[in-house]
Amino acid sequence: MQKRLRQWIFTSLAVAFLAIALAPAVPALAEDGKQEFGGMEPGKWVLGMRAGFAPLTQELTAGTSTDVGSLVNFQAMYSLNRWLLLGLMVEWERHAVDIERTSGSLGHQDTVSVLPTIELRPGNFGQLSPYVNMSFGVNSNGFGENSNNSISPSTTFAWRLGWGADYMLTKQFALNTEMAYKRNDGHATIDGLRNDDWNASSFGFLFGVKLYF
Length: 213
What we know:
Layout: H1 2-22, E1 45-54, E2 64-66, E3 69-79, E4 84-99, E5 105-120, E6 128-145, E7 151-153, E8 156-168, E9 173-183, E10 185-190, E11 193-199, E12 202-212
Antiparallel strand pairs: 1-3, 1-12, 2-4, 3-4, 4-5, 5-6, 6-8, 7-10, 8-9, 9-12, 10-11
């Protein structure tokens, strides 16, 4: 299953790169009464405030089980033209971690991700504005212990691939939903010993609002 997931992720990434590369070659059709490529006005700021949930894509580490985590995401983007936006996301998530055999609680892992982001808007369908985005950044991981163990997860490289849509209620206000995969694969130091099997990569499901100005 993990192999299929990786193949699907890389396929999605290739499609996103291809769309970005071909976008400037799409002809403008506005003169014919048709919508030209792109779903944004140039020079617009977009602020997003979303919350949701995030299951891990695998075990955090061997012998543990992890609850579906809470997820909060803030976003600020700027449209360079009708189809391309650049900006920044800051995302927080928390997962409770239990010992699988005894059902005892190890504690919880918190992750704060800082994610410079690129976003592609191919066009609008009525009030619906779909998009795909990609981010590279850093995951700052911490652990709150409920046991006598000392657990310190590493800071990791973050790669995030998301896709979603805005539903425009007005020109300045939209409802939003987004799904994203985020890579958070590193190691942890447990009671002074390094454990290289520590993977908090997750799928995030976000719901919220966006402001355009």
